[in-house]
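Let's do one together. I've listed all components of the complex below, 459 residues spread over two lines.
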Amino acid sequence: MALVGALIVLVTIVLILLFTRRIQSGRPVHVRAIPSLASLPSLAGKAVESGQTVHVSMGTAGVNDNRTIATLAGLAVLDELADKGCVYGSPPLVTVADPLLAAAAQDSLRQAFARHSRADEHDPTRVEMVSPQPAIYALGASSRLEADATAANVMIGSFDTEALLLAGPVAQKGIPQVFGSDNPQAMALLVAVVDNPIIGEEIFAAPAYLQGRPAHLASLAAEDWVRLGIVALVLLSVLVHTLLGVSLF
Amino acid sequence: MRRGIPTAIAVTVGLTTLVGYLFAPLVPGLAVHLLFIRWAAILAAVAFLLGILNLFSVHVGRVAEMRREWPYSLILILAASLVIIIALLEQQGPGGRAMTWLFQYTLFPLEASAASLLLFFMVTTAYRAMSRRPTGYTFLFLLTIVLVLLGAIPFSASLADPLSQVRHWVVNVFATAGARGMLLGVALGTITAGLRVLLGIDRPHSEREP
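Okay, and this is what the predicted structure of the assembly comes out as:
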C-alpha cells in the first residue's frame, strides 16, 4: 500500500508541475465553480460599507496536528480577508482554539497591515483565543459575535459537530455565513444552516480562488485529474470483482 | 536570502520525511524521518510554550490598558497562572492528583454542559430548515433523520425488524458511500495542499507579495 501512496504522490507532483507550466505559458485551466469561495471578497467589501466587521474562524484544530492542512486553508482565507479589511481600516475579528494558531493569525493581520504601510494600526487583540475545547470554543465565539457588530461569519478549517453551536445562532440572526470543513459529520449538520456550504476538499481550493497563483490553480487541476483516476480505478475494481471475483486492492 | 534558507531547510526536511514514510517499508534502515519526527515533537512543545507566552502578553497588555472586557483577560491570566503553579508544585504533569481534580470538577463538567446543548441546536436547526427553505432536499433530509431514529427505537419485533433494516440500509449504503466519497476528496485535497506547503509554495514558508 505504501507503493500505491508513493505512486499517487508522484503522479500528483508531476501533474502540478505540468499544469503550472501550462498556466505560465498562458493556456487556461478549467477551475470548477465554488460560489461560496467566490463570494468571500464581496463579503469583506460589504462589511466595510456597513461599518461592521467579518468574523473568521479557522476551526478547532491547531497547526501541529494531523488536521493542520485544513487549518492552513483557513489561514489562506484569513490572509485574503485581512488584506481587504486592512485597506479600509476594518480588519477581521478572529477567534481561535489553539494558542499557536493565535500567533499565526496575529502574524497574518500584522503582514496585511505592513503590506499597506499601516503597521502601526495592527492590534493583536483582534485575534482572540477562546478555548481549546471545541464546544466551549463555539459557544465563546458565538457570544463574541453577539458583542461585536458582525457583517459576516466565515468558518473554514477543521470543525467537529460542535460548530453548529456557533453557526446556528449566527444563522438565526440572518448574518451571511461561509462554512467549510473537512469533517463529514460536521458538514451533515451545517448544510442545514448554511447556504452553499464548501464541501470537503473544496476548502483546499481557497488559495486558488483567492490568490489565483499558477501553482494553486495547477494543484486544483491536478487534484481533479487524480480524483478522476481514482474513480476510474474504483469502478474497474468493482467490475473485476463482480465479473471475476478477484479483488484488485 | 533571509527567507530562502529557512524555506530550503523546511522543504528538505519535509520532503525527506515524506520519502521516509513512503519508502521505509521497501528500504530497511531508512529511518531518518523518525529522527525528524522526534525533533518536531520537541520544537512543537517549544512553539506551544511561545504560543502561551504570546497569549499572556496580549492579555496582560489588555489589562494594563483597561481595554474593553479586560476583566475576562484578568480571569484568563489568573486561571492559567493558577494551573501552571499547581502543576509545577505537584511535579506530576497532567496526571497529578490536584490537576486531575481540576480537570474532573471544572473543565469536564463545563465541556459536557456545552456539548449537551448541541441536541437542542440540532432540533431548532431542523425546524428552521423546514420553516425557511422547505425544498425537496429538506424533506429528504428530515425523512432520513426520522427513518434512522425510528430504526433505532426498540419497538416490538414485527415493527422493529423492517425499520431496523431500512436504517441499516440507509446508514451502510448511502451515508457510508457519501462519507467515504467526501473523505477520499479530503485526502486528495490534503495531499495537494500538503505538497504545496512542502514545495514552499504555500504557508508557512511564503509571505505574500505586496
